[in-house]
Fold:
Amino acid sequence: MIVALAGGVGGAKMAHGLAMASDPAPLTIIVNTADDFDHLDLRICPDIDTVLYTLGGIANPATGWGIAGDTRIVLDTLRDLGGEDWFMIGDRDFATHILRTQALSQGSTLTAITARLATALGIVPKIVPMSDQPVATIIETPDGSLDFQAYFVGRQQRDEVVGVRFQGAEGAIAQPDAIAAIRTAEAVVINPSNPIVSIGPILAVDGYRQALESTAAVRVAVSPIVGGKALKGPADRMLTSLGHESSAVGIARIYAELIDGLVIDTADAGLADAIEDLGIATLVTKSVMQSNDDRARLGAEVLDFAANLRSNGVGRR
Ligand code: FO1
Structure:
């Protein structure tokens, strides 16, 4: 069993690469749900949908989120009628949110409706929300608090981030299948997602940190920072404003207690020694995923890296 922790577009691309490389071994992808929100009376789960669409082969290649070739007749009509159109939902994407909202209102769990959507898209790996209870990321800025999507999409990440909270995380229950998968995995991969707002919420739910600390799996992360910059999104600025270093070393320090190995890009080869000084093995490779082939190759390299560490006695705590 391979387990991946994912959020955002980078996390979904890596999940796709791991799905291609791990087949036929079982793969469980644990997905951040703290970006989820209610909008237009619909429950929107962007990170789950990005993983679903990416693994289902229908993601919009230009954005990484949403559905390829989707139209926006509903959204444009809503705007013409005086409704909200700040959050781009395509016509086909609307169907996902309608089905999910209906299922949740009829008593389904987020886990169950996610599995149903995955089956409908022909996806084999198990896609599991981090929790069935709602958790919401709140961004603290010098001008006050913002809901995550208001910060991310509404204000295009232009505010300085001085704090981050995960509302509801204290009361949320870690998804039991996710915890069981971490406990029994051979390898756990922390995908190249934003460590603060994509992986941070998963680790904030009671049970995940403990499971990662005690699993016999080899645990590797893939750095989302290359050459000091985030490949997508505000992770670099967020790391700096929150007092971390925006570099692969900064990522290694954040995950230090939870990982055995870190995959870094060739652009950061000079940082390998500093990361190994923290007791973390490194794999230096081309980590930027531009094509499907890049995803499959990186997925295979990450799994080989974990297997090599395992054969050298890493893991098996
Ligand atoms: N990101 C944007 O930058 N603008 C959007 O209008 C937008 C709409 C959207 C709709 C559905 C969906 O599943 C994702 C969407 N995203 C949009 C992406 C999303 O806000 C972010 O990728 C994540 O929440 C950050 O990981």
